[in-house]
Amino acid sequence: MSADRVVQLRWEPRHVADDGRVELSYPGISVVSSRQGEVVDRKWVPVGEEPTFADDEALIAVLHAAWRWTRPAA
After folding, report:
1. In which domain of life is the source organism classified (predicted)?
2. CA–CA distance from 52 to each of 7, 17, 58 (Å)?
3. CB 36 within 8 A of CB 45
4. Which of 13, 57, 62, 74 is most deeply buried (CB count within 10 A of its CB)?
């Protein structure tokens, strides 16, 4: 792993206003990739009360890509 490439996981709900009167909130996990302190990528994956197999696979794919990114090719 390179010290200049960092991946952080953050619990971040998304807030969406439909018409300015009603705001909905969706729980999720942000996977934030930074290089030398600068954010270079951010992916948000929703997390529901009863996640499906597809939800699990989507999160695994995002995490796998992020952690592989921390190991630059030799």
Report:
1. Bacteria
2. 25, 26, 10
3. no
4. 62
Could you report the per-residue pLDDT of 15-73, keeping only the tens digit for each? 888 777 778 888 999 999 999 999 999 999 988 788 889 988 999 999 999 989 888 76
Tokens of 46: 């929703």
CA distance 50 to 48: 5
CB 58 within 8 A of CB 47: no
**What are the φ and ψ backbone dihedral angles of 56, each rounded to 5 degrees?**
-60, -45
> What 3-state DSSP class applies to 39?
strand
Instruction: Please give the model's pTM, rounded to 2 decimal places.
Output: 0.74
Radius of gyration over alpha carbons of the chain, in Å?
15
Distance CA 39, CA 11 (A): 17
3-class SS of residue 48 = coil
